[in-house]
Design goal:
- The chain is mainly alpha-helical and 172 residues long.
- It has four helices and no strands.
- α1 (2-38) packs antiparallel against α2, α2 (41-101) packs across α3 and α2 (41-101) runs antiparallel to α4.
- The two termini are 30 Å apart.
Length: 172
Amino acid sequence: MEDNKLAADEARRAVQHESVKAEIESDVNAEIAAHAQGATRVEAQREAQIAGEFRSKAVNEVVDTEREVDRARGLARISQVVDFIFYVIYALLGLRLLLELLAARRSAGFVQFIASVTDPFYAPFKGIVPSPTAEGGYRLTIPIIIAIIVYLLLHLGIKALLRMIAHRRTEI
């Protein structure tokens, strides 16, 4: 959703930029043409030089804006990939937590699969705090909850960093 807002905002800014630029260029060209009719040759050359400088500056601004928009689009795509990866991690760790809460048999193939897939993400948090166990083997694995919270904070940090990089710099 944020990526769509970023793209819409960049598109709106580009259209607004083009509109203002075209209006100013039109005004400058009309003024130059009006002065050129009654101006001396030196004044006409100077006005042509100034008009060329304005054109060059306008083209450079458009090129810079296009680069910024392309960079923002690339970072938006990276942000989507980061979101997907973290959502998969959340889902797998949440599934492992649910299986632990339901006292799923560890010998079951699916339980072994989930445990083997989530072990790299869960290993740094194993044994941080004890996991309370109830009768029948039901366990509340608090380290999994801690892992999910830590990955959530990491996810938010990466997203904030990408937003800072993608933020468009404005000059006055």
